[in-house]
């Protein structure tokens, strides 16, 4: 049993090391962050903006004090989306090259940036009760299922009572898990992602598909999630 566990831990470690090595080879540009599809960035931000604005119209909306950008890369989402809606933002990104470019890009907005966390999401733990919105986009495929569930649970603790965890990810059309050995990631089907939400005691309060992306790309969906315990508290307070 111990030997099997050791083998599993070794495979997991190799999964994360391979992803880190892949991103080390990628240039710190918008095109690099989006896998050669930098031209979709503006369309992506427009879709995210509409979704985020809809969250501020929920019955118990998140406030606009603090956001967290997970897998922040060079700060594309912070600069073009979160900066316009929140007073303060933290960024977490494990690649030091990307983080340095983000710092330069966001230098003139330094009054709005609080912390840069140079760490992988599998090892990151948000400060408790700090965030109104935690934004995770095109990064969760780099977490294995058990680590993703644990990450979601940590995010739940990092949210304020009215807070929302946003997941924006590719979804497979095949209903099967699809593995990319080049960048060491997985793309999950809808049923798998929703199963993981449930395992992490999260409830989806709003879901929307990104529109106007080129044909041939994975469908992209946005999910607004709240911890089940927060949802029951909000109902009781209503």
UniProtKB/TrEMBL annotation:
The keyword S-adenosyl-L-methionine applies. InterPro entries: MeTrfase_NTM1 (IPR008576), SAM-dependent_MTases_sf (IPR029063). Transmembrane segments: none annotated. It comes from the Eukaryota. Keywords: Methyltransferase, S-adenosyl-L-methionine, Transferase. It catalyses: N-terminal L-prolyl-L-prolyl-L-lysyl-[protein] + 2 S-adenosyl-L-methionine = N-terminal N,N-dimethyl-L-prolyl-L-prolyl-L-lysyl-[protein] + 2 S-adenosyl-L-homocysteine + 2 H(+); N-terminal L-seryl-L-prolyl-L-lysyl-[protein] + 3 S-adenosyl-L-methionine = N-terminal N,N,N-trimethyl-L-seryl-L-prolyl-L-lysyl-[protein] + 3 S-adenosyl-L-homocysteine + 3 H(+); N-terminal L-alanyl-L-prolyl-L-lysyl-[protein] + 3 S-adenosyl-L-methionine = N-terminal N,N,N-trimethyl-L-alanyl-L-prolyl-L-lysyl-[protein] + 3 S-adenosyl-L-homocysteine + 3 H(+). One of its GO terms (biological process) is methylation. GO terms for molecular function: N-terminal protein N-methyltransferase activity. GO terms for cellular component: cytoplasm. Its EC number is 2.1.1.244. The keyword Ribonucleoprotein does not apply. CDD domains: AdoMet_MTases. S-adenosyl-L-methionine binds at residues 71, 76, 121-122, 137. Pfam families: Methyltransf_PK. It is an enzyme of class 2 (transferase). Belongs to the methyltransferase superfamily. NTM1 family. This is Alpha N-terminal protein methyltransferase 1. The lineage of its organism: Eukaryota, Metazoa, Ecdysozoa, Arthropoda, Hexapoda.
């Amino acid at each position: 049993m111990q030997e099997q566990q050791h083998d599993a831990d070794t495979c997991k470690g190799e999964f994360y090391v391979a992803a880190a090595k892949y991103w080390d080879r990628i240039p710190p540009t918008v095109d690099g962050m989006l896998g050669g599809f930098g031209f979709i960035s503006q369309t992506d931000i427009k879709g995210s903006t509409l979704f985020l604005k809809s969250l501020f119209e929920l019955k118990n909306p998140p406030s606009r004090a603090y956001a967290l950008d997970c897998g922040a890369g060079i700060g594309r989402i912070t600069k073009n989306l979160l900066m316009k809606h929140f007073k303060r933002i933290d960024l977490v990104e494990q690649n030091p090259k990307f983080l340095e470019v983000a710092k330069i890009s966001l230098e003139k907005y330094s009054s709005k940036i609080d912390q840069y966390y140079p760490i992988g999401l599998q090892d990151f733990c948000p400060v408790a009760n700090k965030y109104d919105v935690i934004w995770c986009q095109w990064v969760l495929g780099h977490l294995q299922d058990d680590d993703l569930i644990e990450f979601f649970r940590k995010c739940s603790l990092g949210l304020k009572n009215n807070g929302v965890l946003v997941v924006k990810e590719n979804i497979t059309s095949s209903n099967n898990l699809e593995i990319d050995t080049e960048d060491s990631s997985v793309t999950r089907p809808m049923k798998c992602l929703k199963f993981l939400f449930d395992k992490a005691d999260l409830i989806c309060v709003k879901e929307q598909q990104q529109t106007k992306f080129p044909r041939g790309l994975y469908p992209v969906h946005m999910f607004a999630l709240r911890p089940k315990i927060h949802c029951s508290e909000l109902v009781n307070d209503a």
